[in-house]
Specification:
The complex is a heterodimer of chains A (172) and B (310). With 172 residues, chain A is α+β, with helices and mostly antiparallel strands. Helix content of chain A is 44%, strand content 20%. In chain B, helix 2 packs antiparallel against helix 4 and helix 5 packs antiparallel against helix 6. Classes of the chains: A alpha+beta (172), B mainly alpha (310). The interface between A and B is large, with 70 and 73 residues.
Chain lengths: 172, 310
């Protein structure tokens, strides 16, 4: 046995003290193993479920794992419409009031596919009106666009298809 | 009987090796410093979830126990309390009581911020590390609680927490690798999937009004490169358990995974901040050696007659 363990296991010749120390040692050692086993089991558990469960802070870590055989993608987003008809994607803080780009994406998605899409569009337009860097934006569109992600960079960023779910004017 | 005892001792040597109190204490300092800084920087983001929008509320984890969103004012108080509790955790002040409170608050607040439709995977390991450290004797050295006391002798009770943290880190990457094999099979290593993900990720960032990676876009025509990157990332993830076999292997693996995250940042503009700061990989190293470096040497003055050469 290693010296550090021996020193703990047999601290004294006195029987009572030995028992007390032994029990303390066993309980702390058992607690370490129990806690470790619990943490490991908890971390592994989402992957053992059928279907695997993505949650927080326990996850099966599915990001970037699903097959993506084609570069075609669909995205629901908020666009600013300029006076000349060109469109500019609205930043997350304006489109959803959130700094996190993926949370913003989900906020837009849920709003578009709910009964309050027009009200949400008006909310976004209100934030556009207050953003000085977007003063050339005249209207807001909530749209689902289909892109070829590779062609987007190699040829043109124009969407293959775009469905506008809601449109509202920016009132300044 | 002897075999059982031998196995138990071998397990003890592996899982609870005698380690200096400064190892787990430096881990507390690193994770604590990361936590306080991260919470302060992300404060506006965290406070933006003080919402009562029932339609958007998609509770996950611990928050699913709540039937509805927390009252915005209560949530704001919890966020501020988490920021405040991160300081005693960092300093090691009344650690036995305050550290578990910090861990609980952090778990709740970060789970709550992930309960609005999109689960981000950037904070998982950070929360798990805080949970482990909060019950470990991480304030027996280099802490307010231990100031003026002699440095404790090396002991097994200081060895298990770094081992558990490293194991959790390894498991997270193994799970990510398993998910890729389960959801894409070997198609993932062909490279086309990763290339499409890089293109998809960058288009998504642009079309959601955020920053994208010009490097990732520039590399898109080189399909073969993405095949090599996909194979390397899968190897790092599924081969992660070797990092627990030997300290040096663990150190090499940690640096390789850090480089992998640097690659993700460069190609997709996605930053796993905890990993990029390298704090996530600190348990694979003898972090007490940081005290030998001049910027950290002052910390050793917490204890009279401290030796840092272990």
């Amino acid at each position: 046995m290693r010296p550090h363990l021996r020193a703990r296991w047999i601290p004294s010749r006195r029987r009572g003290a030995f028992r007390a120390c032994y029990l303390r040692r066993v309980s702390s050692r058992s607690a370490v193993y129990a806690f470790s086993a619990l943490m490991i089991a908890a971390v592994v558990s989402p992957a053992l479920r059928d279907p695997p469960a993505d949650s927080f802070p326990l996850s099966d870590y599915p990001m970037f794992s699903h097959g993506r055989p084609t570069p075609r993608m669909e995205l629901t987003h908020a666009l600013g419409v300029r006076a000349d008809g060109t469109r500019v994607p609205l930043p997350p803080l304006v489109s959803s009031g959130n700094r996190e780009v993926l949370q913003s994406m989900m906020t837009i998605h849920y709003a578009v596919f709910s009964a309050r899409r027009q009200a949400f569009c008006e909310e976004v337009a209100g934030r556009v009106a207050e953003a000085p860097e977007l003063r050339d934006v005249r209207a807001v569109e909530l749209a689902t666009s289909t892109f070829d992600a590779v062609r987007y960079f190699e040829a043109s960023p124009a969407p293959i298809r775009r469905t506008v779910h809601a449109r509202c004017e920016v009132r300044r | 009987m002897n075999a059982a005892r031998y196995l138990a001792q071998a397990l003890d040597r592996f899982w609870m090796p005698a380690a200096p109190a400064t190892r787990v204490a430096t881990l507390r300092l690193l994770v604590g410093l990361y936590g306080t800084t991260y919470l302060l920087v992300r404060l506006p983001h965290l406070l933006s979830y003080a919402l009562d929008d029932v339609e958007r509320f998609r509770p996950v984890g611990l928050v699913s126990l709540a039937p509805a969103p927390t009252l915005p004012v209560v949530y704001e108080i919890l966020v501020w309390a988490t920021v405040a509790a991160s300081v005693p955790f960092l300093l090691g002040y009344r650690y036995r009581v305050l550290a578990p409170i910090y861990a609980g608050l952090l778990l709740w607040v970060l789970t709550y911020s992930n309960s609005w439709g999109k689960i981000l995977h950037t904070d998982n390991l950070f929360v798990l590390y805080v949970l482990v450290l909060s019950v470990a004797p991480a304030a027996d050295a280099l802490s307010w609680d231990a100031r003026g006391r002699a440095l404790p002798a090396d002991a097994p009770k200081y060895g298990w927490a770094p081992k558990l943290m490293a194991t959790l880190c390894v498991l997270v990457y193994v799970l990510a690798g398993v998910a890729k094999l389960r959801n894409s099979g070997m198609d993932f290593v062909a490279g086309e999937t990763l290339r499409n993900y890089v293109a998809f990720g960058n288009v998504r960032k642009i079309e959601l009004g955020s920053h994208h990676s010009p490097l990732g876009v520039w590399l898109l025509p080189y399909t073969g490169l993405f095949g090599a990157l996909a194979r390397a990332s899968l190897l790092l993830e599924l081969g992660a358990p070797v990092a627990l076999v030997h300290r040096r292997v663990g150190a090499v693996w940690a640096v390789a995974v850090w480089a992998f995250h640097l690659g993700v940042l460069a190609l997709m503009a996605i930053g796993f901040v905890f990993q990029l700061t390298f704090v996530a990989f600190a348990p694979f190293f003898r972090t007490e050696r940081l005290l030998q470096w001049r910027p950290f040497a002052r910390l050793a003055r917490f204890h009279p007659a401290t030796t840092t050469s272990r």
